[in-house]
Amino acid sequence: MKIAQIAPLAERCPPKLYGGTERIVSYLTEELVRQGHDVTLFASGDSRTAARLVRGSDIALRLDPRVKDPIPYHIMMLDEVRRRADDFDVLHFHIDLLHFPLIRDIAERTVTTLHGRLDLPDLVPFYRAFPEFPLVSISDDQRRPMPPVNWVGTVHHGLPRDLLPFTAEAKGGYLAFLGRISPEKRPDRAIEIAARTGMPLKIAAKIDKADQAYWDEVIAPMIAAHPKVKFIGEINEHQKAEFLGNARALLFPIDWPEPFGLVMIEAMACGTPVIAYRCGSVPEVIDEGVTGFIVEDIEQAAQAVGRIDELDRGRIRATFEQRFTVERMAQQYVEIYRSLADVSAGALLRRAMGATVGGVTGSDRVGLPALA
């Protein structure tokens, strides 16, 4: 199949540091190429991919100090997507809602994966206005706030099997918190849980400008008051493997309807159990008593920390391989692509008419080598 993947421009594909959506787009793109599909990736110009790359910006927008507003860059990228739309059997969007008015006439051969929270009141009238668009959720729980829409599937995220190595024995003796410093991620709860158990806690997280006050006023003072808590900052993929693999458990004490929670399956890939609050997708991702424990409060979380030795790290890794690999994720998406009403007939017609690959000359294509 000829497939377009349209990524956000905030981070490159894959991100150097934090960035969940772009990371998943990258994993999916590379797996689709590996499976033999003809894939074009619309993303930031510093992305690394085995697919054909069409640059939406010079570099990831979050890393470009000249950029004040990301919207113009996404609109310019979407204009290029629209210009090339007939070159593809399926266009797969990962940018929420910006593209809807532009491609309404070809909605039947598009897929839009919604990666963010959907419990915001402004989204209800929007999605009611565009009921024909095929949508994919990343968890069943993510769908709950939405009006009736054209759901075509739920696809849980997946990781490459060899991305994060299995660690049979955690040598660090600490609890881990990985993600973002923000009120809904509740690093304050993680600190309280660690303090209740007496175990060290390492926090590897980014601090967005929007959350700087929360860090300054809430989290930094708590860390200063707890000598066993260490803040590491943002970490890269290599550091993540060691950080998660050597942790006794990952704390995921969220306080919001998390659409998926990529860090949970990253920990599982390392064999590390997850202790998570019952919010959002957590009950869909964590197998209670197998890959971790689902809790309601700090007391239950502290009790769960005392039970982590009951869990088999090898079984946690095996569960990851059964449920959360990129091969499974790509297979589910390909099934969705093929189920779209206009795709099969349209693909045959376009090929019969001799549509050119990519619809552009070689000089317009930017191909970069895949990551090792």
From TrEMBL:
The keyword Transferase applies. Residues 172-311 form the Glycosyl transferase family domain. InterPro entries: Glyco_trans_1, Glyco_trans_4-like_N, Glycosyltransferase_grp1. GO terms for molecular function: glycosyltransferase activity. The keyword Transferase applies. It comes from the Bacteria. Keywords: Transferase. This is Glycosyltransferase family 4 protein. It comes from Cupriavidus cauae.
